[in-house]
């Protein structure tokens, strides 16, 4: 199949903005600047402020949704399905999961490399698969169970690579690297709960993905912004990473931005990229296929790793390459990327069709699967 220029643009936009999302967050973490007081120059360690910016990007998806809706309604033949009306509070629980998981992951990103951060996020399919069986009544195919087992193996390999790197890396202590990796995996448990809740609500209420992402962004942005106030007074010691030793010092973040304006560029890169990434991801699923979206998401991990090496943010590790390939295999099996290949073989085509038919909701999952039923990317 030959792609149109618009489809190529969407694929490129998804790959570019998805990579910028993680790289800009890591870039912000690498800056050092003076704060509000006479404290010496210190690192920009403000994961909760970064999370607020990320939710602002998700919130902007609501504006994109209404702009597209208005444009569609002015056309002679409206094609956009806005979905049924729903109570926005239905998405409060998924938004809180998103807020918690995103905050944890930004804390972890301060402790480990950008490539390991992106690779370890692949653990989400393990917990999403198990929770979908338990709470959605889904039956996983044998290839999906195999994909989960291979993904676990890939996580072990990436963890070993980080262990080796942490032993000889002056940037992060070994204990920080291990803690960061464990926090990322812990966050994926929360993300999987979010995905199961989103899937249940999206299918039941026929909510447009952009509207769902924007609604969650609305809740996440305002709740986390309010939580920055008590965080300013909660002692956290060295874990806070700021001179006052509190959970989050938002004033210190703004003062550091004033002394080092490039931090604004990194934060804006994160905010803007998340909005365009969600739009591009949903459009790729609609205009091309969910399979293409999965492939692009895997390529995003590769781009982040290559750019991090080129910028000297991390050192080359052969184990990390092996871990990436194993994770890629596990993700591909879980998401059915092997089916188009098997379908080309006459003797296997019948078994592929039977496997899809035997799993309730499998066809819907293949259409809607991505970085979540709503296309949300935290």
From TrEMBL:
Question: In Gene Ontology terms, what is one molecular function of this protein?
Answer: transmembrane transporter activity
Q: What is this entry's stated membrane topology?
A: Multi-pass membrane protein
Region described as Disordered: spans on this chain:
358-378
In terms of one coarse class, where is the protein primarily found?
membrane
- Which GO annotations describe the biological process of this protein? negative regulation of mitochondrial outer membrane permeabilization involved in apoptotic signaling pathway; positive regulation of cell population proliferation
Q: Where in the cell is it found?
A: Membrane; Mitochondrion
- Transmembrane annotation, as ranges: 48-69, 89-108, 120-138, 145-165, 177-197, 218-237, 257-282, 294-313, 319-337
Its GO CC terms are: membrane; mitochondrion
User: Which controlled-vocabulary keywords does the entry list?
Assistant: Membrane, Mitochondrion, Transmembrane, Transmembrane helix, Transport
Q: Name one Pfam family in it.
A: SLC35F
According to its UniProt record, which protein family does this protein belong to?
Belongs to the SLC35F solute transporter family.
Q: How does it assemble?
A: Interacts with SLC25A5.
Name of the featured protein: Solute carrier family 35 member F6
Say which species the protein is native to.
Answer: Scophthalmus maximus (Turbot)
Q: Gene encoding this chain?
A: slc35f6
């Amino acid at each position: 199949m030959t792609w149109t220029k618009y489809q190529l643009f969407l694929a490129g936009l998804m790959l570019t903005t998805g990579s910028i999302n993680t790289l800009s967050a890591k870039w912000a973490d690498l800056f050092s600047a003076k704060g509000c007081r006479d404290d010496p120059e210190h690192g920009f360690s403000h994961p909760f402020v970064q999370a607020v910016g990320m939710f602002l990007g998700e919130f902007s998806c609501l504006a994109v949704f209404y702009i597209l809706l208005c444009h569609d309604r002015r056309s002679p033949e409206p094609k956009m399905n806005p979905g049924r009306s729903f109570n926005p509070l239905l998405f409060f629980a998924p938004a809180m999961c998103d807020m918690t998981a995103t905050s944890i992951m930004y804390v972890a990103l301060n402790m480990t490399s950008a490539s390991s951060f992106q690779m370890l996020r692949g653990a989400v399919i393990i917990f999403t698969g198990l929770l979908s069986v338990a709470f959605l009544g889904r039956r996983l195919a044998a290839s999906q169970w195999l994909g989960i087992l291979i993904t676990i193996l890939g996580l072990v390999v990436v963890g070993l690579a980080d262990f080796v790197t942490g032993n000889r890396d002056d940037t992060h202590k070994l204990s920080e690297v291990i803690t960061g990796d464990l926090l990322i995996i812990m966050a994926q448990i929360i993300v999987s709960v979010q995905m199961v809740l989103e899937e249940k609500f999206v299918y039941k209420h026929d909510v447009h993905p952009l509207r769902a992402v924007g609604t969650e962004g609305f809740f996440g942005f305002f709740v986390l912004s309010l939580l920055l106030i008590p965080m300013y007074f909660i002692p956290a010691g060295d874990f806070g990473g700021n001179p006052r030793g509190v959970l989050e010092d938002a004033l210190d973040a703004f003062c550091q931005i004033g002394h080092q304006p490039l931090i604004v560029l990194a934060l804006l890169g994160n905010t803007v990229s998340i909005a365009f990434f969600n739009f591009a991801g949903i459009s790729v699923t609609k205009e091309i296929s969910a399979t293409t979206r999965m492939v692009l998401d895997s390529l995003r991990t590769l781009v982040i790793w290559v750019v991090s090496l080129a910028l000297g943010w991390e050192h080359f590790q052969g184990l990390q390459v092996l871990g990436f390939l194993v994770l890629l295999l596990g993700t591909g099996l879980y998401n059915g990327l092997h089916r188009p290949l098997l379908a080309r073989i006459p003797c296997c085509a019948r078994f592929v069709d039977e496997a899809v038919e035997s799993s309730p909701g499998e066809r819907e999952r293949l259409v809607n699967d991505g970085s979540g039923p709503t296309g949300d990317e935290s």
